[in-house]
Amino acid sequence: MRTLAMLLLGFVSMGAQSSFGQSASGWVELFNGKDLTGWRNNGAEKWVVEDGTILCESTAGKYGYLTTERTFRDFNLRLRFKGEASGNSGVFFHARITGIDPDHGPDIEGMQVEVDPTPGNHTGGLYESGGRGWVIQPTAEGERAIRSSDWNDLEVSVKGSHVVTRLNGVQIVDYTDRAPKFTDGAIALQIHTGGGVKVRWKDIYVQDFSK
């Protein structure tokens, strides 16, 4: 019976992975693992596909953004990231590039889910660029959810003004925005200004409810 139970558990796990990886139940891949089709590079920083991942790396020490060509309003997003240096990054939603600053690179507005490989630096919290700044930061438990030198699983759910983020299975934010400034826009990956950023991204999927 123990052996049978273990086999059944294995099949359930394989099914869950398959439903995520094969775009079942409306999940669609945003990154094909081969090239940056469907994405737009904004700025002078490095965005390349390497070993089935998107590698972002500071080269000019300015802001850089990789934005989706599509826009999204209500959605679920799942991705994996691994910090390979101590620099700050992020995942934006309801975002748009508003211009170029010659000293700092592209300007962006929208809501950012913070990504930073250093514990205590608010990964999974919400920061509004072009608006209020920090909206909500993680709890003490949430601050400990980051895996500094390993792959991390990030989930973002946006339904109207309600935003939920999870990091490695830990709920970081459950927030209803009483004054949402941005309600539609691109999904974007960020390189923060100042240099030192090196992050890998993979397994990027979205479930779009905007249609």
CATH architecture grouping of the largest domain: Sandwich
Query: What is the mean pLDDT?
Result: 90
Structural class: mainly beta
**Termini Cα gap:** 47 Å
Structure characterization notes:
The protein is mostly beta strands. The chain folds into two domains: 1-27; 31-208, Jelly Rolls (Sandwich). Helices cover 11% and strands 48% of the residues. It contains two helices and 15 strands. It has helices at residues 2-21, 140-143; strands at residues 27-29, 39-42, 46-50, 53-57, 64-68, 75-83, 89-101, 105-115, 126-129, 133-136, 152-159, 162-167, 170-176, 186-191, 198-208. The strands form two sheets. Strands 1, 3, 4, 6, 11, 12, 13 and 15 form an eight-stranded antiparallel β-sheet that branches. Strands 2-5-14-7-8-9-10 form a seven-stranded antiparallel β-sheet, with no helix packed on it. Strand 9 and strand 10 (133-136) form a beta hairpin. The chain is globular. The N and C termini lie far apart (47 Å). 35% of the residues are buried. Residues 1-22 have low confidence and may be disordered.
